[in-house]
Design brief:
By secondary structure, this protein is of the alpha/beta class. 33% of the residues lie in helices and 21% in strands. The chain is built from 11 helices and 9 strands. A hairpin with a 4-residue loop joins strand 2 and strand 3 (54-62). The model is unreliable at 1-26 (pLDDT under 50). Bound molecules: glutathione (GSH). Glutathione (GSH) is lined by residues 80-83, 87, 91, 124, 175-177, 287-289.
């Protein structure tokens, strides 16, 4: 009776392909919104995160498929400072290309929310919407500000157990702070992601104002030796694992370039470490989602090649 009721629920039937409604209910996902887009569905879910100790939202774009059982690869997108899951969904224009290449896109929020830790909303580049995709070690952040563990240990499993994915066939990309996150997550987990790309990433956070502020607060002083564990320019020097190419994209009219972003430091370090880099410089483009939307198709196409 209960099962029949769930299966016949119009909201669940209307959800469309690529979702296992029963397991969604069982694993505690709540569907917040669903919009048809390019033949597929742009959805937003919330769930109670054990790792972060708060309710989190994330977007899932489900492309159209021939049948309900087809498993598809996933591309993860990590957003930048001040963003929630909404910015990418509404501004990047990724749905068209995800539908074309038949890939699922998952995009989480950028920090824990709703905890009201003293000081978490005092500035736009630290605390809420500025989690930096690391595991904090300092009070009062260390119990909740663990975006690295959230993505690696919780979100990937949650996505693979609730959607028709090809588990293990996944790539990652991001913007600015999220570009830093994409690079760090792939360099720290050799082989976990088939490919990585980044728009205007913070490439050497240990030496730029955003990174120094975040690392000092979340990790403590540089002298503790923790900063280099979260800095792509340092991590690439000791990368050992399956071949990994770094696709770095940079607008040349970006007001944060080069001081906050420093892509050339990463390009040089990668060359020294024998890690190949594609470095694309885009004349006249700035840091905004207008820039991202202009090249997101190229990035999704790049990842789709690696996910075949
Ligand atoms: N608030 C900052 C800008 C922050 C910013 O540019 N954030 C980027 C990521 S680093 C972003 O994606 N913003 C949200 C948006 O453009 O929708 C400022 O006023 O300078």
């Amino acid at each position: 009776m209960y099962l029949a009721c769930i299966i016949n629920c119009p909201a669940i039937r209307a959800f469309g392909k690529h979702c296992r409604p029963l397991s969604n209910i069982m694993t505690g996902l709540t569907e917040l919104s669903r919009n048809k887009s390019f033949g597929g569905w742009q959805t937003v879910f919330s769930h109670e995160s054990k790792v972060l100790g708060c309710t989190m939202k994330f977007g899932v774009y489900l492309p159209p498929t021939e049948n309900d059982t087809e498993n598809l690869p996933v591309i993860y997108w990590l957003s930048g400072l001040t963003c929630s899951e909404a910015n990418f969904i509404e501004k990047a224009g990724a749905q068209r290309y995800a539908a074309e290449h038949k890939v699922i896109i998952v995009n989480p929020d950028t920090s824990p929310r709703g905890l009201n830790i003293p000081g978490d909303s005092d500035s736009w580049d630290f605390g809420v919407a500025a989690g930096f995709y690391l595991n904090a070690t300092q009070d009062p952040w260390k119990n909740n500000y663990k975006m690295y563990d959230y993505i690696i240990k919780e979100l990937l499993d949650l996505v693979n157990s609730n959607f028709n994915t090809q588990a293990g066939n996944q790539s990652i990309m991001g913007h600015s702070m999220g570009g830093h996150g994409a690079l760090v997550l792939s360099l720290k987990n050799p082989g976990l992601f088939k490919s990585v790309s980044a728009f205007a990433p913070i490439c050497n956070p240990s030496i730029c104002p955003w990174g120094i502020k975040a690392f000092s607060g979340y990790l403590g002083p540089k002298e503790t030796g923790q900063w280099e564990e979260w800095d792509a320019t340092e991590l690439v020097k000791k990368y050992k694992g399956p071949p990994l190419e770094l696709f770095i994209d940079q607008g040349l009219n970006d007001n944060f370039y080069p001081a906050q972003l420093n892509p050339k430091n990463l390009v040089e370090a990668s060359k020294g470490a024998g890690v190949p880099v594609i470095f694309k410089e885009r004349e006249s483009y700035n840091h905004s989602y207008f820039y991202i939307a202009s090249f997101i198709g190229e990035h999704i196409g790049y990842h789709a090649q690696h996910l075949k």
